[in-house]
Amino acid sequence: MKETTISFNNFSFKYLFRDQPALVDFNLSVSRGEFLVITGASGSGKSTICYSMLGLLEKFYEGEKQGNLQLNDIEISNSQTSELSKLIGYIPQRIENSFVTPYVFSEIAFSLEYQKYTKSEIMSKVHSVVKDLNIQKIFERKLNELSEGEKQLVAIAAAIVNKPAIIIADEPLANLDQANKKIILETLYQLNKKGKTIIIATHEYEEYLQFASRVIKMYMGRIVDEILPKKSPISKTKKEKSIITTDVDIDTTAKLSVENLNFGFSNEFQISDISFKINEGQVLALVGDNGSGKTTLLKLIIGLHKQKNGSVKIDNIDLKSLSWIERTQKIGVVFQNPDVQFFEEKTIDEISLISRNLGKEIISDDIIINSRQSGLEKLLQYNPHSLSHGEKRRLAFLSTIHHRPEVLILDEITSGLDDNNKSWIKNQIETLKAEGTTIIVISHNMKWVHEVADEVLGLKDGQIKFRLPIEQFDIDSYTDYFESSIKE
Fold it and tell me: Which residue of 33, 78, 208, 326 is most buried, as measured by CB atoms within 10 A?
């Protein structure tokens, strides 16, 4: 019988000002060396389980706790955070909040510098994990120059660099392209084979079934089901698919035009001669691997980065000629990290913030209806920063579309959302499209892209590699498209 390393015993926790507890009489034993996956809808208690195992609940979150939680037969609430951090590596869902240094190297090395390692030992450990995760090309860069997916890889590297006994990860595959997902899954699998305990919290558990020892499903703070996966060999046979070369006709009176756009952070990365157009009421999916330039292109379109040359136009009007108020009226954006776009102290005020700043009439009934449909109705008086990750995404979306911008850009909008909330976002996109809104969705979720997009534009190394109608975009041939030149 395997030794128990983590044990929840009738554990309950209710956050301050929340009506319902996050965990209710929760009982769970995790064996040493187990690969456990915790799944469930948004708000089911997954992240709270992670926080509790890290010893964060009572130290950083106000609320009421009952029952007990032990790590190696020691009550976690009696353990020092510094001691827990030696045993547990944590990959958070909100990676931006976890960084403490400006550079990739120093971030990965940070936890080692407070332990008894020599400089050469630290260098060896850092270079080892960098090689394992294949992130050599970003090793010497600044964190603020990286894409969200690249930042995710750095957070994972920082969590596993010291090979802790337990690795807890909250949606570790979010924001990652398919190639990097495979690298992370294989890395976690190899660590598990060496006896490490792996605990994953995720909405999309299917990707872990080939590795997991069991999957537990959560609902409203309780375990409602348990799955013991049947392991099967992973097929490595690659399907032969033909690549369809297509020239897409775009109306010359396009809603959004990007013309000969060039930009560079440094010699490490460049956006090179990007040109494309999108018609009114069209949904264009922007896809590509981590670091391909998707989010950088977003920031160029909305004016957060200044291009070296080229232009961005709406209705043939160069955005450079517009004031920030005029730009805000025309373009709405939901960033990958929703925390960066919250400014109000109450959710209800956040929803109407842009409309108020634009001098638009605020109709309370509309806010109530939209918040009810999105599942945020009971949270309208809460501080936006106190919401869960999924709730924040829905709030950022609502606050962005409330004033009905002419162009809407969504950066990894489905990351961290369960299937019900993905469907809600999809329905909202269909409504906006019918109203004539031009929409760009940036995503690694190819299945979702197929459900919402009219066309797919692929980026690689800051250049357009292909553009295809959604009917001709084959998910199984995704990698192959980037080796060809299929442009409009």
Answer: 208
Residues 35 and 117 grouped into a single domain: yes
Cβ-based neighbours of 339, under 8 Å, separated by 6 or more: 94, 96, 97, 385, 392
Instruction: List pLDDT tens digits, range 208-264.
Output: 999 999 999 999 999 999 988 865 444 443 433 434 436 444 444 689 999 999 988
Same domain, 341 and 206: no
Among 44, 2, 50, 55, CA closest to 22: 44
- Alpha carbon of 230 to those of 18, 214, 482: distances in Å? 38, 10, 34
Q: Which of 454, 320, 335, 344 is nearest to 396 (CA)?
A: 335
Classified as helix, coil or strand, 478 is: helix
Which secondary structure element, helix H or strand E, spans residue 121, and what is its range?
A: helix 119-132
Tens digit of pLDDT for each residue in 257-283? Answer: 999 999 886 656 788 889 999 999 999
Structure tokens at 290: 């981590």
Encoded tokens for 257: 């035009």
Cα separation, 233 vs 231, in Å, equals 7
Which of 457, 424, 406, 135 minimizes the C-alpha distance to 284? 457
pTM above 0.90, yes or no: no
Domain that holds residue 54: 4-227
pLDDT of residue 111 exceeding 90, the answer is: no
Per-residue pLDDT of 422-463, as tens digits, reads 899 999 999 999 999 999 999 988 999 999 999 999 999 889
- We report the CATH number of the domain holding residue 111 as 3.40.50.300
Q: Note whether 279 and 427 are same-domain residues.
A: yes
Q: State the total domains in the chain.
A: 2
Domain co-membership, 97 together with 216: yes
Residue 486 counted as domain residue: no
237 located within any domain: no
Rounded distance, CA 415 to CA 411, Å?
9
Of 206, 227, 248, which residue constitutes the final position of a domain?
227
Contact (CB, 8 A) for 92 and 155: yes
Residue appearing with tokens 């190696």: 72
Q: Are residues 292 and 202 both part of a single domain?
A: no
